[in-house]
Amino acid sequence: MSYFIDVILPIPLEKEFTYSVNKDEFVFLKPGMRVAVQFGKSKVYAALVTKIHQVAPLVYEAKEIEHILDESPIVTSHQLELWSWIATYYMCSKGEVMRAALPSAFLLESETIILKNDKITVDESILKDDEFLIYEALQHQSLLRIQEIMNITGKKTVLPIIKRLLEKEIIVVQEEIYEQYKPKIVRYVKLHAEYTKEQALQSLLESLTRAPKQKEVLMHLFMLESKNNKPIKISELAKAANSSAAIIKTLIDKDILEEYQLQVDRVQFDGDSSTLSKDLNTYQEKALQQLRTCFLDKDVCLLHGVTSSGKTEVYVKLIESQLEKGKQILYLLPEIALTTQLIKRLQAYFGEKLTVYHSRYSVNERVEAWNNVKNTTSKAQIIIGARSSIFLPFTNLGLIIIDEEHEGSFKQFDPAPRYHARDTAVVLSGMFASKVLLGSATPALETYYNAMQGKYGVVELKRRYGNVLMPDINLVDLKTKYKKKEMTGHFSDTLLEAIKDALRENEQVILFQNRRGYSPVIECNTCGHSPQCPNCDVSLTFHNHRNQLRCHYCGYHMAMLQKCLACGSTELSTKGFGTEQIEKELQELLPDYNIGRMDQDTTRGKHGYEKLITKFEDGEIDILVGTQMLTKGLDFRNVSLVGIMNADNLLNFPDFRAHERSFQLMQQVAGRAGRTSKRGKVLIQTYNPYHQILQQVSVNDYTGMYKDQIEERHQYKYPPFYRIIKITARHKDYNKVNAATLWLAKSLRMYFKEHVLGPEFPPISRIRNQYHKNILIKIPQGQSLGKTKEAVKKVHTTFKSVRDFAGVRIVINVDTY
Ligand code: ADP
Ligand code: ZN
Ligand code: ZN
């Protein structure tokens, strides 16, 4: 009898792969466990078992597995099902999904290790210098890793050396698998069992009279024990008794104290979680009841509530009901909105039950969160996280909340799987017959359309909490302002006066500009030349603070020019402006106030973002200038004015979602103003004050925006009426990209006729020396998605076999965002 397993390998392979196992392994293995297997020449991977069977593969001979890595499945059957769905829907391999889904500690890969060949005697004189260095190191060390060889030789490319040593039979290589996850062990102490009896303890203490330090430690141990009845860490005891580890060790050696170890979670909440959730006001209460009713016959409901209407408090009530039922809750947020502000707020209600799953957490922390979810521990009953938290091993999901559901960052752009977390969450929820709540002040058109069609339920919350008025939004016409010379730098007199008014009242100001750096274009006044990135088709952005020109696409940078590279003229001028320039102008205009800047450049370090927010909250910053980072889920009490420095570059972005996006962005930024009693003020500077979107923003007319935009989408055949698959070809050779995309478009037209658009270069056609060219396939309602994707796959497969196109990378993006 032969026994086999099918596995997913964490690499972009079209199919699952079959390996052979012995009978014991056959009995032991279950889907969802990992096994170490060899694939390719010598590489070893952790592969995930999907099926255990007795059917030998037809076209290759199954290799044996190396060994089994898990005692029990680490992945659930629901997850495997979800992975399959993602792979099929988003047209990628299950291996790619696996890579995105598993915390990297589970994705162990092999590492090449180099050993001495003991079977031969070496004639040292035949060795070159670098070879000798390695040979010598192996006399002292049993094995070497690639990194160590790099260090020893001081070279980055060490493979040639290793190859030569192999040929001379001086070394052998092996693949070694290593586990990255290490449980965190904490050492504790307690009194040895022998002394728990009163009498024994008495005589022990007497015997210690001549060792006062040891006695002191014991007394502190008793004090700590009586104080909080929890296991006592060795470190904690040492600190409390102001004693050294050596004395504690003596006590352990004398069997007076007993050491024991426990495995603990790295992230522990030990704050106060006694806060009761807030009583809802009438509007929130009504919305909550409507949602509950809605969920009786709808699986997905939209809570469309204006900014600061108190949506979060409504979510909290729904979470409470799920907790009572013992269900798990997933709270999804765009990465950027994962602020300590919101987390603190939820922790105050839910304490330990809340787990944050965050890319900023370490590999080990992620594994612990994973295990807690999988084991349905009370610690991970509520998971809050960004898009990748949909991959957690839920066992008992009751509700998924997707806050700021309109956010584009729920869609993964690169690498595959290019999934949309909101849409995937709906599928995930279906597996548990649970519910999905989508929350937003500015829902995505697709979502609102689904609600209008009756596919999703919808509940409105039109008032801000505490009857605070919606901010008063006004447009400032830059054309007139410039003509009348009422501009100072990039500030109209209107905006500047409003800023001064707010500051005079001790209120804070937020200014939004969606570009970072000082100015995005430098131009020579004499010949018109402007410095470009050598790797990308974009102009370099001037960063004043570092006196550098930088590319925002590839990171290329150079010192700011003293003179024009083309003609040598020293008259260079800057065009356009970013956050840095606004900050600088403000410092000159208002030297007595503190200006802060929040963009990618100022929030780099681990806590950079948090620090800025705290400073602003504490009033150490009067005016905060920033990019979209400012928009998401922030709740500042004292901001009375929001200024949008230039609305036009948002509106003019070449994308069919640009108008929708601009509306959302501006409404969200505006929503940061006047969240308490006083009515907030918003000023939008623009050259097009009569632009329909700006008019709609200024009167908070979501419905009007929706109607216009949905009409346009219909007319121009865009989502939600048509689905879109975008195919991008990338290569460093311009002509190759052209030829490849022409071929692709022609082949696709045979299937999809006029529904194929392009090929067309995107606005930035070269990034990191790679040319990009796009083809869009539009899929009308009613056309089978499955068949469409099959046809695309077929074309792609043929494409791969065309010799001329070797090396051209094809990226398929389903439901492109
Ligand atoms: P949204 O998520 O809709 O923007 P939030 O939930 O952040 O709104 O609420 C806005 C502000 O109003 C917050 O500071 C919040 O603490 C407060 N708030 C909302 N609902 C209540 C309530 N029922 N009782 C007391 N304060 C509330
Ligand atoms: Zn010049
Ligand atoms: Zn570049």
TrEMBL record:
Catalytic reactions of this protein: ATP + H2O = ADP + phosphate + H(+); Couples ATP hydrolysis with the unwinding of duplex DNA by translocating in the 3'-5' direction
**Binding residues annotated for Zn(2+) 2, in chain numbering:** C533, C536, C551, C554
Any idea where the Helicase C-terminal domain is? 559-714
Keywords for the protein's UniProt record, in alphabetical order: ATP-binding, DNA replication, DNA-binding, Helicase, Hydrolase, Isomerase, Metal-binding, Nucleotide-binding, Primosome, Zinc
The residues that hold Zn(2+) 1 are C524, C527, C564, C567
Instruction: List the cofactors.
Output: Zn(2+)
What's the domain of life for this entry?
A: Bacteria
Give the first-level EC class, as a single word.
isomerase
Cofactor: how bound = Binds 2 zinc ions per subunit.
The entry describes its oligomerization and partners as: Component of the replication restart primosome.
Protein family: Belongs to the helicase family. PriA subfamily.
PANTHER family with a match to the protein in the record:
PRIMOSOMAL PROTEIN N
Name recorded for this polypeptide? Replication restart protein PriA
**The organism of origin for this protein:** Aquimarina addita
Q: What is the lineage of its organism?
A: Bacteria, Pseudomonadati, Bacteroidota, Flavobacteriia, Flavobacteriales
Chain's gene name? priA
